[in-house]
């Protein structure tokens, strides 16, 4: 969503999104963020402005998600 909104943000916002997607790919060890980066770069260069124009072909973007549940799950205390 940020990538489509970045259309209005100019080159500085484009560079930020590109950099973040590249770093995300490196961090999670997956290619999907680089695919998203390529899709967005084509979209930005196209001059189109609609969401549907950005995703003119089907794409599946999956990334590994990690959730810190330390505050959600109470620790199990050993019985005395």
TrEMBL record:
UniProt superkingdom: Eukaryota
Protein's recorded name: Uncharacterized protein
Annotated source species: Capronia coronata CBS 617.96
Lineage, highest ranks first: Eukaryota, Fungi, Dikarya, Ascomycota, Pezizomycotina
